[in-house]
Amino acid sequence: MASDSELSEFLKNMEKKAFKRAFYHVRNEDAALDILQDSMIKLCTNYADKPVSELPLLFQRILSNTMLDWFRRQKTRNALFSNLSDFSSADPEGEFDLLEVTADSSGVAGSESAEEWVGRLQTLEHIETAVMALPARQREAFLLRYWEELDVAETAAVMGCSEGSVKTHCSRAIQALSKTLGTQGIRP
Using H for helix, E for strand and C for coil, what is the string for the chain? Predict the structure, then answer.
């Protein structure tokens, strides 16, 4: 059974990655924060009695299900109501701050030159755009495998599919990203 401090530490460590994953899926910062909060509450409410070793997979599955629920609610809401804000132009800047991703563990961007920093920031923006352009299942498999660093079996458990499907989705995502980023001059 996980103690309160262990559960709190686990959630603290998962927060940024889980937010980024939710943001990639829903493409809305407020919705991603709501999904993250709901997922954390569900984990604490329903699974606080589980061992710490089981929490990562449980949390990833809860996060996936919460995102699916959000999409279902959106689909239903959009079918019933016409949301006028959908017709306004989106802010191209967005409210997501890539500086959080580029900062090191101390929160400082580092001692690199401005040119290197801008180049790295632009590369990250290109990669983020390419990842967001992937089909949903490919994006989910890619993020779970390479962002969350889950193995194939864990990813299959979280996604609710076979290990072969995970491998296929990841392979296709990597091919698409390689092609997209290659056309932009970004090589591994």
Answer: CCCHHHHHHHHHHHHHHHHHHHHHHHCCHHHHHHHHHHHHHHHHHHHCCCCHHHHHHHHHHHHHHHHHHHHHHHHHHHHHCCCHHHHCCCCCCCCCCCHHHHCCCCCCCCCCCHHHHHHHHHHHHHHHHHHHHCCHHHHHHHHHHHHCCCCHHHHHHHHCCCHHHHHHHHHHHHHHHHHHHHHCCCCC
